[in-house]
Write a structure and sequence with these properties.
By secondary structure, the protein is an alpha/beta fold. It folds into 3 domains: 5-121, Glutaredoxin (3-Layer(aba) Sandwich), CATH 3.40.30.10; 124-192, Serine Threonine Protein Phosphatase 5, Tetratricopeptide repeat (Alpha Horseshoe); 211-292, Tetratricopeptide repeat domain (Serine Threonine Protein Phosphatase 5, Tetratricopeptide repeat), CATH 1.25.40. The chain contains 15 helices and 5 strands. It has helices at residues 24-30, 47-59, 80-83, 110-121, 124-127, 129-137, 141-154, 159-171, 175-183, 193-205, 211-220, 225-237, 241-254, 262-274, 279-292, and strands at 16-18, 37-42, 68-73, 91-96, 99-105. A 5-stranded mixed sheet has the order 1-3-2-4-5, sandwiched between helices. Helix 7 (141-154) runs antiparallel to helix 8 (159-171) and helix 11 packs antiparallel against helix 12. The longest helix has 14 residues, at 141-154.
Length: 293
């Protein structure tokens, strides 16, 4: 979430390195092999360049770990600017992989700077997030898995991508592949329990009756809590989440002791499958709280 320019004054500043001809190769060219280097030419005597320097330092604080800020004070060193064809101040050269990736001569505002930085620093999955969301919404789990697999090749250490891939593979019914991916994710990784719980629901449902059969059983004997629990599990696998949560709530209200409070525990697992920020999960967390208190 981007802040308005007036709010920038409250942000931390990006740490920077001062650059001259002596350290240009090491601190800019070599460093740019790993991260984009934002090289700003400025001078204290040019107020507009000071304003841009402040803006760049503050905005780039949001990109810590994704970019490097380098400053060239032309009042102190006048040899580097001509080499990069700088003719006025302020002037920005963004060096990536040893070459100039972006060039801005003159003032720049926050929106322009963020647009440039987002284009340079977005992960592959961020860049394709719109396509990914669309594929998931349409149920094209094969297409979603392909996007995530490509993103993992680009960012092999990004465990959140593996979490998403494992979840998609379960929904795609590629359970062996999902188990393989899950095994590669450290146990303490945020969100890992989501695909793990989804997989366990699918595995459990495999030994249960069909959705229609279980619904008929519950209708014929509402006191059959075993049938109700099985129905809740199968409803999760069918992605009928609200029906499943309601079924669990009924179990919880009828008998907290049934299978060691399995109604409540299953609700918690379903809420985990839905994930943080999900509106349905938020709604039923409140319902669960009210039922318990």
């Amino acid at each position: 979430m981007h802040l308005e320019p007036t709010a920038i004054k409250r942000r931390n500043r990006m740490q920077s390195v001062n650059v001259s001809m002596e350290n240009f190769q090491t601190d800019v060219v070599d460093a740019s092999q790993n991260l984009p280097v934002v090289l700003l030419f400025w001078a204290e005597q040019v107020p507009q360049s000071v304003q841009v320097k402040n803006l760049v330092e503050q905005v780039l604080a949001d990109y810590q770990g994704k970019a490097v800020l380098a400053l060239s004070d032309v009042a102190q060193d006048q040899t580097l600017a001509p080499r990069l064809q700088v003719q006025g101040l302020p002037s920005i050269r963004i060096i990536h992989k040893g070459a100039v990736a972006e060039q801005v001569d003159g003032p720049i505002d926050e929106t322009q700077l963020r647009t440039i930085m987002d284009g340079l620093t977005q992960s592959s999955v961020e860049a394709m997030q719109g396509d990914l969301d669309q594929l998931m919404a349409s149920g094209d789990f094969a297409g979603a898995a392909a996007i995530l697999q490509q993103s993992i090749q680009d960012e092999p250490n990004n465990q959140s991508l593996r979490v998403e891939l494992a979840d998609v593979l379960v929904r795609k019914a590629d359970l062996d592949d999902a188990r393989t991916v899950l095994a590669s994710i450290p146990e303490d990784t945020d969100g890992r329990s989501r695909p793990q719980n989804r997989l366990e629901f699918v595995e459990e449902a495999a030994g249960m009756d069909s959705l229609d059969s279980l619904q008929a059983m519950v209708e014929s004997d509402p006191t059959d809590l075993d049938a109700r629990y099985a129905l809740a599990v199968v409803q999760v696998v069918a992605e009928e989440y609200e029906h499943s949560l309601l079924t669990c709530l009924d179990i919880l209200r009828d008998d907290r002791e049934f299978r060691d409070d399995i109604g409540r525990l299953t609700m918690i697992r379903i809420l985990d499958v839905l994930g943080q920020g999900n509106e349905l999960a938020t709604k039923y967390r409140r319902k669960l709280f009210n039922a318990l208190h």
